[in-house]
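Structure first, sequence second, as always.
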């Protein structure tokens, strides 16, 4: 009887000790391998919006449908963008035609430039010669005028001498020979005056011809300069047309891009969700049509107490369980640990910290988000926002 009591006492103590040991091991394991069910599944997602506006002529996906990278999701009416592309290409072709025409024109004008420059040089020489000729003609006119004046003076003298001597012959104050000599001198003076007048008229005509030659040379010089200016203007026109090339090419590229954007394809594997449009609707750039979930990368955002963060470091292995499938384990890796959360108290007022005067006897530890990247996700089982359980190993 005594032995039974002793055995029972020893068994009870042993059970208590084992329970304490097991509880201690469990506490240590939980502390060393933090666990939480305050975790949600996350994935990258984009609000899918078209790049161009237009009528949706084809809608090839449905809400919650699985899609693959490169699949055609929907198509916007491409006709306005095809017309715009054709117009842009036509404008570009027209510009190229103008450039080719100007190049051919320039090829023709190159000889004109040389001819114009030679004409300018020749015209300058002609002007110089014409100026010299005009000056010589003016000098000849001046000499002819002086000769005419001298001849007229001699003629007047001879006329006066004859008029004085001829009446004296009848009175026999002079001889017939003297009268004949005076008459001969008068005729010579008249001929000399006539020749002087002719020479003056000839010099004046030569002066007029020299002036006309100078004017003609000046007109030729202006014409040569005009031809040279026209040829240079042709070169400037080509440069202006060449400067329009980038603008026309950019319009063609933009039109091609707009036409390409009419067919919208999936940028990655994923699921369509939150669809709020039907075929035939008018789509606008920047206006979301549906949300596309990227199923190529999944992670879990787990909230751990701050007392457990000392045992969590990036790169640690994590066991992930979904509440929908608690028996299936997935593997994960700690990607990062949150560095801050929004404080519940301790705001700032007028530059001073506002500290609440009340004191909570039981202070709850804060929870910080730990980002866990799932290395072997199953896209068919994972859902954004699903509850998960994580265990740090």
């Amino acid at each position: 009887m005594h032995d039974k009591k002793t055995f029972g006492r020893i068994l009870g103590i042993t059970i208590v000790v084992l329970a304490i040991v097991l509880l201690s091991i469990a506490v240590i394991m939980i502390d060393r391998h933090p666990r939480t069910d305050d975790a949600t599944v996350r994935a990258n997602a984009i609000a899918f919006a078209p790049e161009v506006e237009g009528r949706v002529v084809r809608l090839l996906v449905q809400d919650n449908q699985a899609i693959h990278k490169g699949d055609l999701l929907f198509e916007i009416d491409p006709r306005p963008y095809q017309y715009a592309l054709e117009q842009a290409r036509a404008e570009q072709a027209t510009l190229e035609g103008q450039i080719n025409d100007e190049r051919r024109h320039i090829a023709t004008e190159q000889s004109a430039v040389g001819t114009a420059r030679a004409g300018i040089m020749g015209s300058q020489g002609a002007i110089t010669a014409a100026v010299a000729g005009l000056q010589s003609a003016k000098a000849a006119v001046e000499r002819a005028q002086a000769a005419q004046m001298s001849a007229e003076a001699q003629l007047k003298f001879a006329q006066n001498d004859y008029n004085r001597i001829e009446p004296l012959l009848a009175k026999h104050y002079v001889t017939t020979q003297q009268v004949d000599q005076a008459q001969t001198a008068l005729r010579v003076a008249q001929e000399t005056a006539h020749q002087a007048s002719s020479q003056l008229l000839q010099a004046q005509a030569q002066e007029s011809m020299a002036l006309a030659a100078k004017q003609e040379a000046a007109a030729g010089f202006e014409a040569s300069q005009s031809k040279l200016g026209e040829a240079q203007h042709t070169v400037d026109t080509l440069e202006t047309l060449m400067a329009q090339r980038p603008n026309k090419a950019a319009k063609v590229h933009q039109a091609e891009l707009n036409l390409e954007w009419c067919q919208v394809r999936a940028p990655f594997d994923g699921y369509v969700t939150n669809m709020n449009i039907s075929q035939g609707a008018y789509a606008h750039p920047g206006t979301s049509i549906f949300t596309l979930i990227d199923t190529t990368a999944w992670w879990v955002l787990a909230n751990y107490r701050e007392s457990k963060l000392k045992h969590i470091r990036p790169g640690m292995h994590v066991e992930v369980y979904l509440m929908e499938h608690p028996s299936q384990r997935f593997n994960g890796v700690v990607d990062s640990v949150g560095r801050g959360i929004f404080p519940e108290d301790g705001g700032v007022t007028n530059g001073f910290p506002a500290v609440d005067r009340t004191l909570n006897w039981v202070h709850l530890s804060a929870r910080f988000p730990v980002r866990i990247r799932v290395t072997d996700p199953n896209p068919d089982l994972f859902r954004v926002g699903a509850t998960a359980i994580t265990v740090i190993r």
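Margin note: The mean pLDDT is 79.
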